Amino acid sequence: xxxxxxxxxxxxxxxxxxxxxxxxxxxxxxxxxxxxxxxxxxxxxxxxxxxxxxxxxxxxxxxxxxxxxxxxxxxxxxxxxxxxxxxxxxxxxxxxxxxxxxxxxxxxxxxxxxxxxxxxxxxxxxxxxxxxxxxxxxxxxxxxxxxxxxxxxxxxxxxxxxxxxxxxxxxxxxxxxxxxxxxxxxxxxxxxxxxxxxxxxxxxxxxxxxxxxxxxxxxxxxxxxxxxxxxxxxxxxxxxxxxxxxxxxxxxxxxxxxxxxxxxxxxxxxxxxxxxxxxxxxxxxxxxxxxxxxxxxxxxxxxxxxxxxxxxxxxxxxxxxxxxxxxxxxxxxxxxxxxxxxxxxxxxxx
Length: 350
Description:
Mean pLDDT: 97
């Protein structure tokens, strides 16, 4: 039975080319610095983003936590988005691992107001923590996929750098942001001191993320990865899929964006309250069900009858993401299913 799985772009299956590359990979002991395939993936990644060095890790969450552990000392403060992944969905890692304090700011289409960043920075003083890192996220908010422009990134980084802070970018879906904006990756991330991207979100690799920054930053991050038990031996089998992802998958992301836009427009045609078209920047569509009085869990359950999976994110909200395993017919099929469910719900309410 085939499901149309819109829950996330992490549910994708590795391509035939990835599977073959994993089978054929030349490997070595990565902890000893002897895995040539891992080294190639790290070299490719650093070159793509114009950073000095890169580190292959098992997940985006691990990359985020290693980065903050590398950039901070216990008791420091980091400025994050109140809707950000690093703050909400990493099992309290900032507090448990880095032992840092968080200053969470509201975002406006994924951006903090520059004056809010200014006001959040702590003044020097014996009673205050040190504001050490500004954390940005691009695309921002995993349930909306909002893009941050190069100009905004540079402006936010200028504020942070002026106050002696580092800028860290959670770029789990940075390739989607670059595609949506039509800009070069290097230009998009030039102002940030360190960043990560995921190989398994949109790029269809089965596992992994890449942490990037200066050589000094990556040297210490590698040591912290080992402390966390993240050192790997013959990791080239996994890295090989990442190489294929970087080589073959980036050029097709526009298809996912186009399908997400079509999905959003179709939902709006069913009922204008279902979606805010102004926030469909990339491959993510957020469904708003409160105006219809339709609970998200009810919609999700009914969609399962059509072999469609969506993610429930709130009582009256669902998320749908387009990816390599969702095609035009799947989008059309999902729209017809939602149309039928909404019509049935309206009839029941009469």
